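Fig. S4 source data, part A: sequence.
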Amino acid sequence: MTERTGVIIGIDLGTTTTEAAVYRNGKVEMIPDFDGNIAVPSAVGIDDRGNFVVGAKAKAQYVLAPERTAIEIKRKTGTGEKIRLGEKEYTPVELSARILDYVRRYSEAWLGETVNRAVISVPAYFNDIQRRETAEAGQLAGFTVERIINEPTAAALSYGMNHLEEESHILVYDLGGGTFDVTVLEMFEGVLEVKASSGDNRLGGKDFDQSLVRWLTERFEEKNQVSLKGDIFAESRLKTAAEQCKVELSAQESAVVRVPVLAEKDGCPLGLEETVTRELFESLIAGDLTRTRRPVNVALSDSGLHEGDLDMVLLAGGSTRIPAVRREIRGLLGIEPSAAIHPDYSIAEGAAVQAGIIGGAVETEKSLVMTDVNPYTLGVRTTDGYSSDVMSVIIPRNVTIPATRRERYYTAWDDQDTVSVQVYQGEYASASRNHMVGEFEVGDIPLAPAGKEEIDISFSYNQNGILQVSAEVVSTGKVSSLTIDMIDASLPDEKSAEEWKKSPLAREFRSLIRRAEKAIRLASAGGDGESAGELETMLAQLKYAVMKEYRIRAEELEEEIREYLNSGEENNE
């Protein structure tokens, strides 16, 4: 297992870009990649030689080879969808891991030391599947994921570190490339208390781009009588042009969109050139901006605050640069939004602060005490006499965590001797419309008429995403329980690390794994902790890839480990 020592970095794994930061020497420092970029495009591709490319190289490739390039990967997290690159399909976890592995490697190069621990941010409104898959991507990239932190909370933490004595109510308005989050917080005496969160995981700058793409497509097809439907090359060029146009319109009243070659007609190339005004663009995204109002109102309502109670609106996410977004905020909340934090970097900065607190880099007197909330309702499936598909709430959404709640239930029919406790997460009244996160049985219930035997069900939910569920038969005192890791964020411990042996891939990699384990023992015994640590990280990734049946990644790690072992043996000769 990877040793939990050394620096912990903060990572904002975004839809459009990914940023990393570290807290050291009393401040946050953004980490540039190998080319000096801080905002690294969240793009992954396969080049014409079959090698993976990540970041700016992949983003540049997207225009020329969209069939071999993936963007907006974060939007597919938790959906179960596969992403095709060339002839092969990949999961969002595998491709997100590529981005995070790139972050790990350039962070190590910049910091000059091994980096295998991280705090990774996610939208506040991500459900447990999306959080778990984000953590899995971190694991596959070689990180011990110390904490999954909500993006608006991270942004507020970035602000709060420099305003420890402030007392205020803050609304964080986080509109990024693919998601929208609203979080209401209170700051007082060095405490950052989250009051409520809401959001929309399918709303962001990419939707604004798509609205412009649709308009440009209609203009082109109308002028040229040529359909672009199903043309992925035209789509990639239009997406790239629309994104650039959107950025320009945040600073000027109009922008010209030029795509020299978009399609062909009768063997002749056809291009596109259109002037887009800010007014036109704002009319195209008006419907999406209207969608931001409901999460704002829900977060305020759940927090028990009104617009007039707010002292500040903090902006996070690159899409908040759009003038229409700021006007929307002023109109809705009656307050001028603040630019006190960097919209692109604040989330990574806040994640780095949290990493510094965990790792002890933040001095105690400069540290914030932070609380958070449960963004989704948690409950169990019950019957009300009419339906057996009722969501019975135990911990409502936006309850400050850690939280413990208990509810009493009764047997539903005569001589019922077992109860199936099904745990759900979500806001629907029907349990089946929510997401089931766990299930267990309570047995040996004394035989009695319906409604006579009582079962107390308790939920305890903490900041690390661990939900403890217990059910007690009141008359006998018998307790059954279940622990649900809603984040699943740590690398396997010694027991679970052996789960790889159960995989169908185990036989193919068993010999190499044993050889690597022996090399780690020898390196440790010989005092070569650096070599042992590097090999240990690669081995943990390999075991995880084998366990998850990620064959392609496992084969790549196999090659890396063999090269590492062979070079070590040559050096010892």
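Fig. S4 source data, part B ends here. The CA atoms of residues 59 and 161 lie 34 Å apart.
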